[in-house]
Amino acid sequence: MEGAGGTLSDLYQNSRRLLLKTRDGLERLERLKFSSSATGFVDSPDLSFAVKNDITQIQSLCVEMDRLWRSIPAKSQRDLWKRKVEQVAEEVDSLKESLDRYLRWNQKQMLEAKEREELLGRANGESAHILRIFDEEAQAMQSARNSSRMLEEAYSTGVAILSRYSEQREHLKNAQRKALDILNTVGLSNSVLRLIERRHRVDKWIKYAGMIFTIIILYAFWRWTR
Fold first, then answer.
1. Which of 22, 78, 203, 222 has the most CB atoms within 10 Å of its CB?
2. What angle do CA 5, 11, 15 make, to 5 degrees?
3. pTM higher than 0.70, yes or no?
């Protein structure tokens, strides 16, 4: 018997050849599945598409062979070809189930890989945000330490200036006392003494003004560094 694709025997041989090819392709897909579990997800869309295409061809051959064996006049030959065609149909159904399981697993792996990538992207974004916050806080702390150090230096400078003013004041007082003793000894006039006292008051106001000015400078520097 002969159909559009050839004789029943030719169609059967083609189906057997495609079954072997399909089985080999599924074994390769299973090896990829095993390697994916060890090294990470590995996809082969071209191979899975080729296996699916072969299964479709075998199913088409089964339809054509089923039509041909029914037209065989001899019952013994008809029963023989019926068993052969049914065997091919059962094998191709089994291979199709294996391919469907692999495709479901493959789709699941692709979804999980996509979810991991999205989670990793969000984690990296959050990590970068946290690191940026830490960096800003570190910069702020460093700036505060620098300001504190500058304020301490300015305070030390002010204290040193006030100490020098105090030392100068003591020297002036000692000099004044010595001058007054000398003047009293030599009997200088009261007008000279008043002049000395007025100069002493002026020096005192200069000292106080210098101290106030130093405090104002320190306060302004402290406000500027805040």
1. 22
2. 125
3. no
Are 11 and 5 within 8 A, CB to CB? yes
Tokens of 122: 């969000």
To which H or E segment does residue 9 belong?
helix 8-39
Maximum pairwise Cα distance, the chain: 166
Take residue 93 and report the two structure tokens written for it.
């159904």
Q: What is the DSSP-derived secondary structure letter of residue 3?
A: E
Taking alpha carbons only, the member of 106, 111, 94, 3 closest to residue 47 is: 106
Q: Which residue has the higher pLDDT, 11 or 154?
A: 11
Locate 177 and state its tokens.
Answer: 């006392």
Helix (H, G, I), strand (E, B) or coil at 44: coil
| Residue 99: both structure tokens together | 């391919």
Q: What is the pLDDT of residues 162-198, one digit of tens each?
A: 666 566 667 666 766 776 666 566 555 566 667 777 7
- Look up tokens 């106001």; give the residue: 205
Q: Which residues are paired to 7 by β-bridges?
A: 2
| Residue with token string 């060890």 | 38
Closest to 116 (Cα-Cα) out of 169, 58, 192, 40 = 40
